[in-house]
Structures
1.
Amino acid sequence: MEEKNIMTYETVSLDDENSQLVIIDQTRLPYETKMLYLKTQKEIWTAIYLLQVRGAPAIGVAAAIGIYLAAKEIKADNYDDFYKAFKEAKDYLASARPTAVNLFWALDRMEKVVLDNADKSVEEIVKLLHDEAVAIKEEDIWVCKSIGEYGLSLVEPGIGILTHCNAGQLATAKYGTALAPIHLGQERGYNFKVFADETRPLLQGARLTAYELHSAGVDVTLICDNMASIVMKNGWVQAVFVGCDRVAANGDAANKIGTSGVAILAKHYGIPFYVCAPTSTIDMECATGDDIHIEQRPAEEVTEMWYKERMAPKGVKVYNPAFDVTDHDLITAIITEYGIAKPPYSESLKEIFAKKEAAKKNK
Ligand SMILES: CSC[C@H]1O[C@H](OP(=O)(O)O)[C@H](O)[C@@H]1O
């Protein structure tokens, strides 16, 4: 199948006319650009679990649209029956994946719409849920662009940047988080030289980041995960940008498996390591990285996927954590849409949320 300019596609959207969630099937990229039209809760749950839609912000947007579509189908003529059915649908979607906090952040935000409008009719509440799901998506575009601007303020044109996994447009509503500075920089002639870790076992770096950046005309070089050290040692990397799935109140950050190793390498080579984190991905209820639930995924993702034949002996034990936690003391700065947090994160993240509250009040 011919590759297209994936940057021209919407990662996740609501088709109002047909009451369906529309996503790119990211398990088929880069060889096939297949759109999925999802109506049922099972289809949406499965799309999140299988990473057909993936990336913390994109999962949040998909869940917000998904729970709206569920609410639209609830047959209830009173609030209590409606809320009971809503809660069941919310708990079901919340069970799809445990680590990315945006899934829960978005579902909680949608539930707040229901709780805050108990005096309204079911029909009015469903309309408010529609508007909230659309707002969550639109806000994500602004959040990513803002992270891109703050990220650009930290780097010079022409530098080498390494990134891990995919925290790009395919992980968000647009621009991405870790790739937002790169996409914005491309629009402004920054000419970054990007090294994309392939990111085993699901190859989000090879299949998605390299594809996104190549489509956008960015100078991108694909490397195996075990090559990050040599490109840093060669002096080809001046900054690392990664995304995140859950940041704890002390700045410990959960991200795709392998990220903590990249952070240790960056520290060793004296390279700044930046985590790009929407405030929707910062969990101030989570004290440290030790409190973050790390998703374990099927062994077959390690032993079978991408190979013509199984690449390991039948029955061998496999450990397949989808994420790891980078200790806060390995992180140079956490870039949010309300500014750049520097250590000590236990204080600076509070300041970021204070800025967010102030901005809301001034709206
Ligand atoms: C902008 S969040 C992207 C974040 O999510 C990815 O995980 P997955 O592909 O399993 O959804 C990865 O950790 C990225 O950094």
2.
Amino acid sequence: MKQYLDLCQRIIDEGSWVSNERTGKRCLTLINADLEYQVGKNELPIITTRKSFYKAAIAELLGYIKGYDNAADFRALGTPTWNANANENEAWLNNPHRKGEDDMGRVYGVQGRAWAKPDGGSVDQLKKVVDNLSKGIDDRGEIISFYNPGEFHMGCLRPCMFQHQFSLLDGTLYLNSYQRSCDVPLGLNFNQIQVFAFLAIMAQITGNKAGVAYHKIVNAHIYEDQLELMENVQLKREPFPSPELRINPKIKSLKDLETWVTMDDFEVIGYQHHDPIQYPFSV
Ligand SMILES: Nc1nc(=O)c2c([nH]1)NC[C@@H]1CN(c3ccc(C(=O)N[C@@H](CCC(=O)O)C(=O)O)cc3)CN21
Ligand SMILES: O=c1ccn([C@H]2C[C@H](O)[C@@H](COP(=O)(O)O)O2)c(=O)[nH]1
């Protein structure tokens, strides 16, 4: 929690104002932040200085794992977070590739599970990584990349947290996640939980011990309409200790995640938090 609050304070103290054309808003912006999560010790990096809707964050991750491309499927899993990008962004609404209400196009999960090959067929990046790690193999390329510039025009948003690399060392699994752009008040609240949970889940289904997750953020920003709440409300609060994430131990394979796992299989134990804060969201 301290590293999150330090990043927020650093953006306020050292950030520069940048106008963002896509949203029409200004962002207080900092380049480069490195966060670390102790997954092996089960110290969940959940925000405690406001209430975090952590189930929505895990539902997003599960939707990517399942390869979803539709905001209605994300809603059914338990998160409304893709509604606005799928249905309220003018450029996407006018895009001829949009397949109708709730379609997100060829984003995250589609690239992770079915990256289109130029010579036909597709690549299931996640399955390859799971298969290797389950056999104790780390070929130094256990990478899942969502970043496919050749298909940006076919999706509602370019992926923000766009690459995950797993490493296996002495039976312990590590994760390096790379994020190009981060809405620190809203997005990072979710992204921290997702990086942590991704390593914890992958360790569990591949039969390895979880180690540390390293989360690199390049462009870390606070939108102009979020700044007052961050500076004068959230940063004035004292954090609580980190709670633990409990994952149903019956989850043993990628197939389990694809078929029967729901949000009921994830629980945060001992979550103490301050009141919710509703930050404005920029589409
Ligand atoms: N501007 C922006 N920021 C983001 O963080 C973001 C995007 N756009 N577009 C794609 C996804 C969608 N994400 C989102 C979208 C909404 C919330 C949000 O409104 N969170 C509320 C609670 C949501 C709930 O009730 O479940 C929050 O208070 O954290 C968070 C992340 C993260 N991403
Ligand atoms: O997982 C996510 C997804 C999105 N975001 C934020 C970061 C930016 O504020 C917007 C995306 O805008 P771009 O113009 O494409 O950078 O969404 C996030 O923080 N985490």
